[in-house]
């Protein structure tokens, strides 16, 4: 199979370009689920990159759950995880401290937006209901690691006046609301120009995307969230 030339002059690192090519090949069925992908030396020649680049790309894809390493056998296309998946929600601040890093919140944007039909369905909103969008840049040791975008019903408009520089979950708890669990979906995506600027990374950098619906203590949908994570700087525990 002829290799695809990666662009050294691109703002996206070579390993990220290689990740995207392999991800697309998996989606197209070039590498079916359960199949072994070519060994490192073949990928090195196919993409005209170093062994370090190949290993970085494979490590990132394995961490994202698209590939799995079998000791002594090679790297294989992983079986997709059942969806939707459930997890207990964990505060970024708590997760950050567990990693021995100091959490903080950088830029915060809060605005009213129109709800899409999908969002109205998920959150059981009336047709005329609006939404509150909260965008936050989450930092670990003062370095941006996550771009967080959450959509709440306009009934939570009081969040516009809340302290969003601290833990969002603590702000909700002050009003008797506990975020208990979420249904989430994982994927990879390339950073847009705006996302890259907020995270202080090159445009096109591969990010881990966690889309989730978060539920409160009464099992009611609380908000719809998206976290764009710099996987090389922050590890998400599922």
Give the low-pLDDT segments: none
Number of helices: 7
Instruction: Count up the domains.
Output: 2
Radius of gyration: 20 Å
Strand order of the largest sheet: 3-7-8-9-6-5-4
For the record, the CATH class of the largest domain is Alpha Beta
Overall mean pLDDT score? Answer: 84
Order of helices and strands: HHHEEEHEHEEHEHEE
How would you characterize this protein structure?
There is one protein chain. This protein is of the alpha+beta class. The protein folds into 2 domains: 14-77, Arc Repressor Mutant, subunit A (Orthogonal Bundle); 85-229, Chorismate lyase (3-Layer(aba) Sandwich), CATH 3.40.1410.10. The protein has helices spanning 14-28, 40-47, 51-63, 92-98, 117-123, 168-173, 193-199; strands at 67-70, 74-77, 85-88, 103-114, 130-140, 143-153, 179-190, 206-216, 221-229. The strands form 2 sheets. It has a 7-stranded antiparallel sheet with strand order 3-7-8-9-6-5-4. A hairpin with a 3-residue loop joins β1 and β2 (74-77). The longest helix is centred in the N-terminal third of the chain and has 15 residues, at 14-28. The radius of gyration is 20 Å and the shape is elongated. 28% of the residues are buried.
Please give the structural blueprint.
Elements: H1 14-28, H2 40-47, H3 51-63, E1 67-70, E2 74-77, E3 85-88, H4 92-98, E4 103-114, H5 117-123, E5 130-140, E6 143-153, H6 168-173, E7 179-190, H7 193-199, E8 206-216, E9 221-229
Antiparallel strand pairs: 1-2, 3-7, 4-5, 5-6, 6-9, 7-8, 8-9
Helix pairs in contact: 1-3, 2-3
Brief synopsis:
With 238 residues, this protein is an alpha+beta fold.
